[in-house]
Amino acid sequence: MTATHPTADPLQHFVAQQRWQPAEILFWAATLLPFVLVPTYLTLASQIAITAIFAVSLDLILGYAGLVSLGHAAYFGLGAYTAGVIAKYGWGEPVSGLLIAGVAAGVFGYLTAFIVVRVRHLALIMITLGIGLLLYEVANREIWLTGGNDGLQGVTVWPLFGKFDFDLYGYTAYAYALAVLFLVVLAARCLVHSPFGLSLRAIRENERRMPAIGAPSRVRLRSVYVIAAVIAGIAGGLLAQTTQFVSLNALSFDRSAELVVILAIGGTGRLYGGIVGAIVYMVARDQLSGMNPQYWYFWMGLMLIGIVLFLPDGIMGGLAKAKRFLGKRRGIHV
Length: 334
Hints:
The chain is mostly helical. Helix content is 70%, strand content 0%.
């Protein structure tokens, strides 16, 4: 008799992957600790949560679909300016403003996806970089709308659900950003473990073979690209709402490059890689810049070199290897 693997059925596999692991539950419980342990760092914590959402969006196209982008800040910045502009000119309701920001970034992502999915490798890097630079210059030129180098000022966001003001201490901002991060991870978790998510990994490994089994590669790549753009726009909208200010830095190349570094630290193609990378990078940047405001990039560069040399698959990749090693050792003793 032939043994059947318990998760051979795609539906059973999907259900099995959706089960929450103890480490995940502990992680989300730990995200509540800043409210109690370090309330003075809640503003930083909200920035970390926003950056983590942004990192998850890039990981969907880079880690799972294999699309390298150096212009992903275009969608982040578009979401930020959309949320900022509508709040400045009369509509400051945060939740609907956030959705509008995501839709605006998604529409732009849909329009640009037709170009992006047609190219690969160096050409893909140049195309995404070009898109980011074009949008940056548009924002820089249209001073009447964006404020140019002075940034978009006068952004007024209403209290969350009509009750919770965005206070200077960051309580509302962190709770808001953390809730959005949780919802984004929940949606991304379902997506990457679904048949659609599995097909993205197959496209990443060998795109040419996918049409042979009836999977339209470009259609699926366009779909995930639009989803990533929507999430990036939501992250940008969160930044605008929680800081009540938008600068050109939201569209800059530095922000896109920073995101790639964050994924390299945490590990690509791993759902929590972007989140862990955002925590490590943002905390290290805050502490190192406080210790040495002039030369903190030196220590940051040293840390990045060490991570790449000793953890080539990122922190999450290193943890996965350690888990497999311990599993083998236990198997030997059993």
